[in-house]
Amino acid sequence: MDLSPQRARTRQAILDAAAAQWCRDPTASLGDVAAVAGVGRATLHRYFSDRHALHTALVSDSWRTLRAMIDEADPTTGSALDVIQRIVTAMVHAGDRVRFLFAATEGTPSEADAGVAQEVDDILLAEIERGQREGTLDATVPARWIELMIWSTVYTGLQAISDGLIPRHGADRLIRRTLRRAVGGSAPQR
After folding, report:
1. Residue 179 contacts residue 138 (beta carbons within 8 Å)
2. How does residue 170 score in pLDDT terms, banded at 50, 70 and 90?
3. Domain parsing of the chain, residue ranges
4. With contact defined as beta carbons under 8 Å apart, do 58 and 15 qualify?
5. How many Cβ atoms are within 10 Å of 25's Cβ, its own excluded?
6. CA dist list (Å): 104 to 51, 54, 134, 150
7. Is domain 58-183 classified as CATH 3.40.50.300?
8. Which CATH class name applies to 1-49?
């Protein structure tokens, strides 16, 4: 879909608004989404014909957004623990998108998004396994278990931000600290 810069910004505003609304209330109306996006409902419908079309587009866009943020975290540089910490930071910055994916897909991507979701899993699992070899992550715990702990802890942190329990600026550090204590290895921790 080749959009002008203005149309691309409008489309992105609608997607961002849908993520913000639907991660908090999956029953929020298209009118609510349009209001948060700062567009009329007719404008929303020019981009997305109905709720299903917007939902499908948002799931795909959320996976692509998360994947791009993980790429920006530079998963090829540094120790496994450093990389995992940057991935956690990327997940926290993806915020509503990660919460929406949890709510919308319950962790199971659609067939259309399976490839991107698998790339995200593969990057994270590779770093977990490297961390286990390096001794910074507990090698007696299955790598997949650690991956699930990361996802769950990030989601819990994002929910705590939404609930006002912790400030957004402190969430990243608290999530990383929780994970290090839960699955840290015998190597010295930072």
Report:
1. no
2. confident
3. 1-49, 58-183
4. yes
5. 11
6. 13, 12, 35, 19
7. no
8. mainly alpha
